[in-house]
Design brief:
The chain is of the alpha/beta class. The chain has a single domain, classed as Metallo-beta-lactamase, Chain A, CATH 3.60.15. The protein is built from six helices and 14 strands. The strands form two sheets. A seven-stranded mixed β-sheet has the order 6-5-4-3-2-1-14, with helices on one face. The termini are close together. InterPro entries: Metallo-B-lactamas (IPR001279), RibonucZ/Hydroxyglut_hydro (IPR036866), UPF0173 (IPR022877), UPF0173_UPF0282_UlaG_hydrolase (IPR050114). One of its GO terms (molecular function) is hydrolase activity. Keywords: Hydrolase. Pfam families: Lactamase_B_2 (PF12706).
């Protein structure tokens, strides 16, 4: 499984012949200025909630690629009204089988509204199960006991967790979340983009090491294989 990081909480997963993009916020992000949004190819775009720093480039990329946007009913409808032709509405607790695997929408503790102030439903995370791997994309969330339900249904290989604090979990809560979902490998996200969420990378790595977790902090534009 190939993973490319585009900053904030935006990751592109290449799963077999399919390309799955999460939470595209690229063009306004000064840290991602080297990324050409129009070169990004995506078959599916999964949106965890409606905030601008997670959906800003979704319409542009979807229209460029005829992508399917997968999101809460409210977000899917909002993008449909903006001319995105292919959407798949979901809600918390629901699961859908797509060509690359199954996607389950799970609870996240966070607010959610769209850039124009429209109601965006509840914030969510996703558990994606493919032929060879299963992973948890937490979205923006606080630490919650609901995470303990995930390993009762899925055997996860890794998790993508927010670590920037202020709007989401910090590294300490993220390490507890990793225990809750029973993973030893964590990809950090939602940090450094804004002053509110700047982190000390040496400090968070030390916290992860003390928790006996492998913390991966990807560079923007970097691609790894897991």
């Amino acid at each position: 499984m190939e993973i490319t990081y585009y900053g904030q909480s935006c990751f592109l997963f290449r799963i077999g012949e399919h390309q799955v993009l999460f939470d595209p916020f690229i063009s306004p992000n000064e840290l991602a200025s080297a990324i050409n949004v129009d070169e990004i190819k995506a078959d599916y775009i999964l949106l965890s909630h409606g905030h601008q720093d997670h959906v800003h480039d979704a319409e542009r990329i979807a229209k460029n690629n005829n992508s399917t946007i997968v999101a809460t009913f409210e977000i899917a409808a909002w993008f449909g009204n903006k001319g995105v032709e292919k959407t798949h509405p979901m809600n918390t607790g629901g699961k859908v089988t797509l060509p690359f695997g199954t996607v389950k929408m799970v609870n996240a503790i966070h607010s959610s509204s769209l850039p124009d102030g429209s109601y965006a439903g509840s914030a969510a995370g996703f558990v994606v199960e493919t032929e060879n791997k299963a992973f948890y994309f937490a979205g923006d969330t606080a630490l919650t006991f609901d995470m303990k339900l995930i390993p009762e249904q899925f055997d996860l290989d890794f998790a993508l967790l927010p670590i920037g604090d202020n709007f989401t979990m910090d590294i300490h809560d993220a390490m507890v979340a990793a225990d809750f979902v029973q993973v030893d490998k964590v990809i950090g996200m939602h940090y450094d983009t804004f002053p509110y969420i700047q982190i000390d990378k040496d400090e968070v790595k030390e916290v992860a090491q003390m928790a006996d977790k492998e913390l991966i902090l990807m560079e923007i534009g970097q691609t790894i294989n897991l």
